Amino acid sequence: MTTTTKPISAELLTLLNAVIKAPSLDAARELESTLEGAGFQALVFGRYNQRASIEANAESDRGVAERLANAFDASLTAARVAMGQKSERSLTPRNAAQRYFCLDPTKSDWHPQPERLESIHTPVVQFWEEDPRAKQRYRKFNPGDGLAAVLVRDSGIGLTRDEMAKTILALNTDAKLRTFEAIGQFGHGGSSSLFFCESALVMTKPRFDAENDDVFWTLIYPEKDTDDSKQDLVRMWFADGDGLPLRVRQKDLIEPAAFPGTSVWHFGYHRGGWIKRIAGPSQSNPWGRLGRLFFPIRCPLKYKATWPVLTKDNTGRLRVHSTGCSRKRPRVR
Q1: What's the pLDDT at 313?
Q2: Residue 329: inside a domain, yes or no?
Q3: Is 262 within a domain?
Q4: Mind listing the pLDDT tens digit for each residue in 115-167?
Protein backbone atom coordinates (compact mmCIF):
# COMPACT_ATOMS: atom_id res chain seq x y z
CA MET A 1 0.00 0.00 0.00
CA THR A 2 1.20 3.53 -0.79
CA THR A 3 2.27 5.27 2.43
CA THR A 4 3.41 8.64 1.11
CA THR A 5 2.10 11.00 -1.52
CA LYS A 6 3.72 10.74 -4.92
CA PRO A 7 3.18 11.97 -8.49
CA ILE A 8 0.96 9.73 -10.55
CA SER A 9 2.67 7.53 -13.11
CA ALA A 10 2.67 8.19 -16.83
CA GLU A 11 0.40 5.16 -17.31
CA LEU A 12 -2.11 6.47 -14.78
CA LEU A 13 -2.05 9.95 -16.30
CA THR A 14 -2.70 8.49 -19.75
CA LEU A 15 -5.70 6.53 -18.43
CA LEU A 16 -7.05 9.55 -16.55
CA ASN A 17 -6.92 11.71 -19.67
CA ALA A 18 -8.50 8.90 -21.70
CA VAL A 19 -11.45 8.81 -19.29
CA ILE A 20 -11.83 12.59 -19.51
CA LYS A 21 -11.67 12.54 -23.32
CA ALA A 22 -14.06 9.63 -23.87
CA PRO A 23 -15.99 8.81 -20.67
CA SER A 24 -17.34 5.26 -20.46
CA LEU A 25 -17.79 2.37 -18.06
CA ASP A 26 -14.97 0.43 -19.68
CA ALA A 27 -12.53 3.34 -19.37
CA ALA A 28 -13.53 3.95 -15.75
CA ARG A 29 -13.07 0.28 -14.88
CA GLU A 30 -9.59 0.27 -16.42
CA LEU A 31 -8.72 3.35 -14.37
CA GLU A 32 -10.09 1.67 -11.23
CA SER A 33 -8.05 -1.47 -11.87
CA THR A 34 -4.87 0.54 -12.39
CA LEU A 35 -5.40 2.57 -9.20
CA GLU A 36 -5.94 -0.63 -7.26
CA GLY A 37 -2.86 -2.22 -8.77
CA ALA A 38 -0.78 0.86 -7.90
CA GLY A 39 -1.58 0.32 -4.22
CA PHE A 40 -3.55 3.47 -3.47
CA GLN A 41 -5.67 3.36 -0.33
CA ALA A 42 -9.36 2.48 -0.57
CA LEU A 43 -11.43 4.49 1.89
CA VAL A 44 -15.15 4.20 2.66
CA PHE A 45 -17.17 6.98 1.07
CA GLY A 46 -18.61 9.03 3.92
CA ARG A 47 -19.52 6.26 6.31
CA TYR A 48 -20.37 2.59 6.25
CA ASN A 49 -24.17 3.10 6.35
CA GLN A 50 -24.74 4.81 3.01
CA ARG A 51 -28.33 3.85 2.33
CA ALA A 52 -30.13 6.90 3.71
CA SER A 53 -27.99 9.40 1.84
CA ILE A 54 -27.31 7.51 -1.40
CA GLU A 55 -29.94 4.85 -1.96
CA ALA A 56 -33.08 6.62 -0.75
CA ASN A 57 -33.60 8.35 -4.10
CA ALA A 58 -36.14 6.89 -6.51
CA GLU A 59 -35.61 8.89 -9.72
CA SER A 60 -32.38 9.21 -11.66
CA ASP A 61 -33.04 12.80 -12.76
CA ARG A 62 -33.02 13.88 -9.11
CA GLY A 63 -29.40 12.76 -8.75
CA VAL A 64 -28.31 14.96 -11.67
CA ALA A 65 -30.49 17.81 -10.38
CA GLU A 66 -28.66 17.62 -7.05
CA ARG A 67 -25.27 17.71 -8.78
CA LEU A 68 -26.40 20.72 -10.81
CA ALA A 69 -27.59 22.42 -7.64
CA ASN A 70 -24.09 21.91 -6.26
CA ALA A 71 -22.65 23.47 -9.43
CA PHE A 72 -24.85 26.55 -9.04
CA ASP A 73 -24.02 26.76 -5.33
CA ALA A 74 -20.30 26.72 -6.15
CA SER A 75 -20.74 29.43 -8.78
CA LEU A 76 -22.74 31.72 -6.48
CA THR A 77 -20.27 31.27 -3.61
CA ALA A 78 -17.34 31.99 -5.94
CA ALA A 79 -19.04 35.20 -7.04
CA ARG A 80 -19.73 36.29 -3.47
CA VAL A 81 -16.14 35.65 -2.37
CA ALA A 82 -14.75 37.41 -5.46
CA MET A 83 -16.85 40.45 -4.54
CA GLY A 84 -15.52 40.38 -0.98
CA GLN A 85 -18.96 39.97 0.55
CA LYS A 86 -20.12 37.94 3.54
CA SER A 87 -22.82 35.30 3.34
CA GLU A 88 -25.96 36.51 5.08
CA ARG A 89 -29.59 35.44 5.32
CA SER A 90 -30.79 38.06 2.86
CA LEU A 91 -28.51 36.56 0.19
CA THR A 92 -30.85 33.74 -0.84
CA PRO A 93 -29.95 31.59 -3.87
CA ARG A 94 -32.29 33.58 -6.12
CA ASN A 95 -31.12 36.95 -4.81
CA ALA A 96 -27.49 35.91 -5.31
CA ALA A 97 -28.16 34.68 -8.84
CA GLN A 98 -29.81 37.96 -9.77
CA ARG A 99 -27.17 40.07 -8.06
CA TYR A 100 -24.16 38.40 -9.68
CA PHE A 101 -25.38 36.89 -12.95
CA CYS A 102 -28.83 38.09 -13.99
CA LEU A 103 -29.73 41.66 -13.07
CA ASP A 104 -33.12 41.51 -14.81
CA PRO A 105 -35.47 39.51 -12.51
CA THR A 106 -37.75 38.68 -15.46
CA LYS A 107 -35.05 36.80 -17.38
CA SER A 108 -32.92 33.68 -16.99
CA ASP A 109 -29.60 34.83 -18.41
CA TRP A 110 -25.97 34.43 -17.38
CA HIS A 111 -24.23 37.79 -17.62
CA PRO A 112 -21.67 38.02 -14.81
CA GLN A 113 -21.63 41.41 -13.09
CA PRO A 114 -19.13 43.00 -12.75
CA GLU A 115 -16.26 42.03 -15.06
CA ARG A 116 -14.28 40.32 -12.29
CA LEU A 117 -16.86 37.52 -12.36
CA GLU A 118 -16.53 36.77 -16.08
CA SER A 119 -14.32 33.73 -15.47
CA ILE A 120 -17.23 32.05 -13.65
CA HIS A 121 -18.97 30.31 -16.51
CA THR A 122 -22.37 28.71 -16.91
CA PRO A 123 -22.54 25.25 -15.30
CA VAL A 124 -22.34 22.42 -17.83
CA VAL A 125 -24.11 19.08 -18.08
CA GLN A 126 -22.87 16.72 -20.77
CA PHE A 127 -23.93 13.22 -21.85
CA TRP A 128 -22.29 10.32 -23.67
CA GLU A 129 -24.15 7.19 -24.62
CA GLU A 130 -22.72 4.00 -23.14
CA ASP A 131 -22.44 0.79 -25.13
CA PRO A 132 -25.98 -0.64 -25.38
CA ARG A 133 -24.63 -3.91 -23.96
CA ALA A 134 -23.08 -2.21 -20.91
CA LYS A 135 -24.38 -3.31 -17.50
CA GLN A 136 -23.59 -2.12 -14.01
CA ARG A 137 -21.71 -4.46 -11.73
CA TYR A 138 -23.53 -5.88 -8.72
CA ARG A 139 -26.92 -4.86 -10.09
CA LYS A 140 -29.53 -7.56 -10.25
CA PHE A 141 -31.64 -5.44 -12.59
CA ASN A 142 -30.38 -2.90 -15.14
CA PRO A 143 -32.62 -0.24 -16.74
CA GLY A 144 -34.23 -1.13 -20.03
CA ASP A 145 -33.50 2.23 -21.64
CA GLY A 146 -29.74 1.91 -21.24
CA LEU A 147 -26.89 3.74 -19.55
CA ALA A 148 -25.06 7.01 -20.10
CA ALA A 149 -21.95 8.78 -18.91
CA VAL A 150 -22.92 12.13 -17.37
CA LEU A 151 -20.64 15.06 -16.58
CA VAL A 152 -21.67 17.97 -14.34
CA ARG A 153 -19.10 20.79 -14.32
CA ASP A 154 -18.79 24.22 -12.76
CA SER A 155 -16.08 26.88 -12.70
CA GLY A 156 -17.00 28.01 -9.22
CA ILE A 157 -15.34 28.04 -5.82
CA GLY A 158 -13.65 24.63 -6.12
CA LEU A 159 -12.23 22.72 -3.16
CA THR A 160 -8.91 22.36 -1.42
CA ARG A 161 -7.58 18.84 -0.97
CA ASP A 162 -8.65 18.74 2.67
CA GLU A 163 -12.08 20.24 1.89
CA MET A 164 -12.65 17.65 -0.81
CA ALA A 165 -12.22 14.81 1.68
CA LYS A 166 -14.50 16.50 4.21
CA THR A 167 -17.32 17.57 1.87
CA ILE A 168 -17.84 15.99 -1.55
CA LEU A 169 -16.39 12.67 -0.34
CA ALA A 170 -18.35 12.74 2.92
CA LEU A 171 -22.01 12.52 3.91
CA ASN A 172 -24.25 14.82 5.94
CA THR A 173 -21.69 17.58 6.38
CA ASP A 174 -22.60 21.01 7.73
CA ALA A 175 -20.49 22.89 5.17
CA LYS A 176 -23.46 24.77 3.66
CA LEU A 177 -25.49 25.52 6.78
CA ARG A 178 -24.00 29.01 7.00
CA THR A 179 -23.64 29.53 3.27
CA PHE A 180 -26.94 31.28 2.64
CA GLU A 181 -26.53 31.73 -1.12
CA ALA A 182 -26.35 27.93 -1.49
CA ILE A 183 -29.51 25.87 -1.91
CA GLY A 184 -27.81 22.85 -0.30
CA GLN A 185 -28.43 22.20 3.39
CA PHE A 186 -28.11 18.55 4.29
CA GLY A 187 -24.67 17.71 2.94
CA HIS A 188 -25.64 14.65 0.92
CA GLY A 189 -27.75 15.75 -2.06
CA GLY A 190 -25.10 15.31 -4.73
CA SER A 191 -24.17 11.92 -3.29
CA SER A 192 -27.60 10.61 -4.28
CA SER A 193 -26.38 10.51 -7.90
CA LEU A 194 -24.07 7.65 -6.91
CA PHE A 195 -27.08 5.35 -6.57
CA PHE A 196 -27.70 5.58 -10.31
CA CYS A 197 -24.16 5.12 -11.63
CA GLU A 198 -21.52 2.49 -11.15
CA SER A 199 -18.62 4.84 -10.46
CA ALA A 200 -17.75 8.54 -10.49
CA LEU A 201 -14.61 10.55 -11.19
CA VAL A 202 -14.34 13.73 -9.09
CA MET A 203 -11.83 16.47 -9.92
CA THR A 204 -11.51 19.92 -8.35
CA LYS A 205 -9.23 22.91 -7.94
CA PRO A 206 -9.92 25.82 -5.60
CA ARG A 207 -10.45 29.22 -7.18
CA PHE A 208 -8.93 31.32 -4.41
CA ASP A 209 -6.78 29.06 -2.22
CA ALA A 210 -4.68 27.28 -4.83
CA GLU A 211 -1.04 27.13 -3.81
CA ASN A 212 0.28 25.50 -6.97
CA ASP A 213 -0.76 23.80 -10.21
CA ASP A 214 -2.39 20.80 -8.51
CA VAL A 215 -5.87 19.50 -9.34
CA PHE A 216 -7.24 17.07 -6.76
CA TRP A 217 -9.10 13.96 -7.84
CA THR A 218 -10.34 10.51 -7.01
CA LEU A 219 -12.51 7.70 -8.34
CA ILE A 220 -15.55 6.59 -6.34
CA TYR A 221 -16.40 2.97 -7.04
CA PRO A 222 -18.59 0.16 -5.64
CA GLU A 223 -17.66 -2.92 -3.66
CA LYS A 224 -19.90 -5.77 -2.70
CA ASP A 225 -20.73 -5.55 1.00
CA THR A 226 -19.20 -8.70 2.43
CA ASP A 227 -20.83 -8.19 5.83
CA ASP A 228 -24.27 -9.58 6.58
CA SER A 229 -26.22 -6.30 6.30
CA LYS A 230 -29.20 -4.74 4.55
CA GLN A 231 -27.11 -2.84 2.02
CA ASP A 232 -25.70 -4.64 -0.99
CA LEU A 233 -22.93 -2.21 -1.92
CA VAL A 234 -20.40 0.00 -0.20
CA ARG A 235 -18.95 2.94 -2.12
CA MET A 236 -15.22 3.46 -1.79
CA TRP A 237 -12.74 6.09 -3.02
CA PHE A 238 -9.03 6.05 -3.76
CA ALA A 239 -6.74 8.11 -1.52
CA ASP A 240 -3.03 8.82 -1.41
CA GLY A 241 -0.84 7.66 1.45
CA ASP A 242 -1.88 10.58 3.66
CA GLY A 243 -5.57 9.67 3.39
CA LEU A 244 -6.39 12.58 1.08
CA PRO A 245 -7.36 12.70 -2.64
CA LEU A 246 -4.80 12.20 -5.38
CA ARG A 247 -2.99 15.03 -7.16
CA VAL A 248 -2.35 15.78 -10.81
CA ARG A 249 -0.77 18.86 -12.38
CA GLN A 250 -3.31 20.99 -14.21
CA LYS A 251 -1.00 21.46 -17.19
CA ASP A 252 -0.82 17.67 -17.64
CA LEU A 253 -4.57 17.32 -18.12
CA ILE A 254 -6.21 17.09 -21.52
CA GLU A 255 -8.72 19.77 -20.44
CA PRO A 256 -6.73 22.17 -18.23
CA ALA A 257 -9.10 25.06 -18.90
CA ALA A 258 -11.84 23.23 -16.98
CA PHE A 259 -10.28 24.42 -13.72
CA PRO A 260 -10.62 26.06 -11.24
CA GLY A 261 -13.94 24.57 -10.27
CA THR A 262 -15.31 21.06 -9.89
CA SER A 263 -16.13 18.35 -12.43
CA VAL A 264 -17.92 15.08 -11.67
CA TRP A 265 -18.20 12.34 -14.29
CA HIS A 266 -20.75 9.57 -13.61
CA PHE A 267 -20.20 6.29 -15.44
CA GLY A 268 -22.99 3.86 -16.28
CA TYR A 269 -25.70 6.31 -15.19
CA HIS A 270 -29.33 5.22 -15.57
CA ARG A 271 -30.59 7.10 -18.60
CA GLY A 272 -34.27 7.09 -17.79
CA GLY A 273 -36.85 8.80 -19.97
CA TRP A 274 -35.89 12.24 -18.67
CA ILE A 275 -32.72 12.48 -20.79
CA LYS A 276 -34.86 12.20 -23.91
CA ARG A 277 -36.94 15.18 -22.73
CA ILE A 278 -34.09 17.33 -21.56
CA ALA A 279 -34.56 19.97 -24.27
CA GLY A 280 -36.87 21.97 -22.02
CA PRO A 281 -37.83 22.47 -18.39
CA SER A 282 -40.43 20.22 -16.77
CA GLN A 283 -40.86 18.62 -13.38
CA SER A 284 -39.58 15.32 -14.83
CA ASN A 285 -36.05 16.60 -15.56
CA PRO A 286 -33.37 18.65 -13.80
CA TRP A 287 -34.30 21.91 -15.54
CA GLY A 288 -37.77 21.88 -14.06
CA ARG A 289 -36.60 20.84 -10.63
CA LEU A 290 -33.98 23.59 -10.43
CA GLY A 291 -35.26 26.42 -12.60
CA ARG A 292 -37.27 28.45 -10.15
CA LEU A 293 -34.82 28.03 -7.28
CA PHE A 294 -32.36 30.45 -8.88
CA PHE A 295 -34.00 32.07 -11.90
CA PRO A 296 -37.64 32.93 -12.68
CA ILE A 297 -38.05 30.62 -15.69
CA ARG A 298 -35.25 28.11 -16.18
CA CYS A 299 -31.60 27.67 -15.29
CA PRO A 300 -29.22 28.90 -18.02
CA LEU A 301 -27.29 25.65 -18.15
CA LYS A 302 -24.98 24.63 -20.97
CA TYR A 303 -26.05 21.27 -22.37
CA LYS A 304 -23.71 19.13 -24.47
CA ALA A 305 -24.28 15.71 -25.97
CA THR A 306 -23.69 13.56 -29.00
CA TRP A 307 -27.35 12.63 -28.55
CA PRO A 308 -30.21 13.39 -28.51
CA VAL A 309 -31.51 16.38 -30.48
CA LEU A 310 -35.26 16.89 -30.19
CA THR A 311 -37.45 18.15 -33.02
CA LYS A 312 -41.18 18.30 -33.62
CA ASP A 313 -42.77 16.42 -36.50
CA ASN A 314 -45.82 17.64 -38.42
CA THR A 315 -48.14 16.28 -35.74
CA GLY A 316 -46.40 18.27 -33.01
CA ARG A 317 -44.84 15.21 -31.40
CA LEU A 318 -41.26 15.25 -30.16
CA ARG A 319 -38.79 13.11 -32.08
CA VAL A 320 -35.28 12.09 -31.02
CA HIS A 321 -32.38 12.19 -33.47
CA SER A 322 -28.92 10.82 -32.66
CA THR A 323 -26.59 13.64 -33.63
CA GLY A 324 -24.25 16.11 -31.99
CA CYS A 325 -25.44 19.21 -30.21
CA SER A 326 -24.27 21.88 -27.81
CA ARG A 327 -26.74 24.40 -26.46
CA LYS A 328 -26.56 27.17 -23.92
CA ARG A 329 -30.26 27.02 -23.09
CA PRO A 330 -31.72 23.85 -24.67
CA ARG A 331 -34.93 24.37 -26.55
CA VAL A 332 -37.29 22.39 -28.75
CA ARG A 333 -37.12 23.59 -32.30
Answers
A1: 53
A2: no
A3: yes
A4: 889 999 999 888 898 998 899 898 777 777 789 999 999 999 999 999 999 88
Full domain range(s) for residue 245:
10-301
Is residue 312 domain-resident? no
- How far is Cα 199 from Cα 236, in angstroms, rounded to an integer? 9
Query: How many folded domains does the chain comprise?
Result: 1
Q: What is the pLDDT of residues 17-32, one digit of tens each?
A: 999 999 999 999 999 9
pTM: 0.84
